[in-house]
Amino acid sequence: MYKDWPKTATEMSTLVKELRIGAPDTMKAFSAMAVAATQAKALDTKTKELIALGIAVALRCDPCISFHAESARKHGATRDEVMETVGMAIYMGAGPAVMYAAQAVEAYDQYVAKNAPAA
Questions:
Q1: What is the pTM (predicted TM-score) of this model?
Q2: What is the rounded CA–CA span in Å between residue 68 and residue 56?
Q3: Coil vs helix vs strand at 39
Q4: What angle do helix axes 5-22 and 79-114 make, rounded to 10 degrees?
Q5: For position 77, which CATH number holds?
Q6: Which domain holds residue 72?
């Protein structure tokens, strides 16, 4: 199965804009929570994004996988780190997590390829 993960993120961003319009107070609070949660403190932002990616796999959230695979890449996560992260998600989420872990790696690889310097 091949999914276009960057396209998934773009489509969801468009849909979430509707929430920002329709439920502005809730979405402002959610955005503030996201900023607070991802801010580097005892854990750096890359580690927090890898945790979010693992949770996305365990909860089977396609858009979450897309957003956090890209954010982990942006914050310097390596493919090996993504593999260890999805390994933990598989351990915690069993068989269904295996299927989503494979998709998380695919999403990460697509973002790496999309952002690779042109040859």
A1: 0.78
A2: 8
A3: coil
A4: 90
A5: 1.20.1290.10
A6: 5-114
Report the C-alpha gap between 80 and 77 in whole angstroms.
8
With respect to residue 36, please indicate whether it lies within any of the assigned structural domains: yes
Asked if the structure places residue 9 within a domain, the reply is: yes
Q: What are phi and psi of 51, to 5 degrees?
A: -60, -45
Mean pLDDT by 10 residues, the chain (119 residues): 87 91 93 95 97 92 94 97 93 78 85 86
pLDDT given at position 93: 79
In a domain, 100, yes or no: yes
CA torsion sign, 49 to 45 to 4 to 23?
Answer: positive
**H runs (alpha helix) in the chain:** 5-22, 24-38, 45-59, 62-74, 79-114
Q: What is the count of structural domains for the chain? A: 1
- Residue 119 belongs to some domain of the structure: no
What is the 8-class DSSP label of residue 115? T
Instruction: Note the pLDDT of residue 91.
Output: 85
Q: How far apart are CA 38 and CA 25, in angstroms?
A: 20
